[in-house]
Design goal:
By secondary structure, the chain is an alpha/beta fold. The protein is about 40% helix and about 25% strand. The protein is globular.
């Protein structure tokens, strides 16, 4: 199966979710899930910094995954960042 809504190794309100990419994915695999889609939270408002940070965290993963970007604000910087994400990431 595919888990379309995951939060592995996510920083939020001064805390971090308990499972990192390896432990969360290993548990999912044990239950029959073979892919998950994780939310990316921008780093200091930057979509590309958030993508790079989560891509680095995901290196220790053990199954297929995808990302879903959380857009937490909208301004000209985010608009430009989104163009970079579409073209380069």
């Amino acid at each position: 199966g595919i888990d379309p809504h995951a939060h592995l190794e996510m920083d939020f309100m001064g805390m971090q979710t308990i499972d990192d990419f390896f432990s969360g994915q290993a548990a999912a695999l044990a239950g029959g899930t073979t892919m998950h889609i994780d939310f990316i939270i921008p780093v200091n408002g930057s979509l590309t910094a958030g993508f790079d940070a989560y891509s680095n965290k995901a290196k220790k993963g053990c199954m297929d995954y995808g990302f879903h970007m959380a857009i937490t604000k909208w301004d000209d910087d985010v608009s430009r960042d989104m163009e970079v994400m579409v073209r380069e990431k």
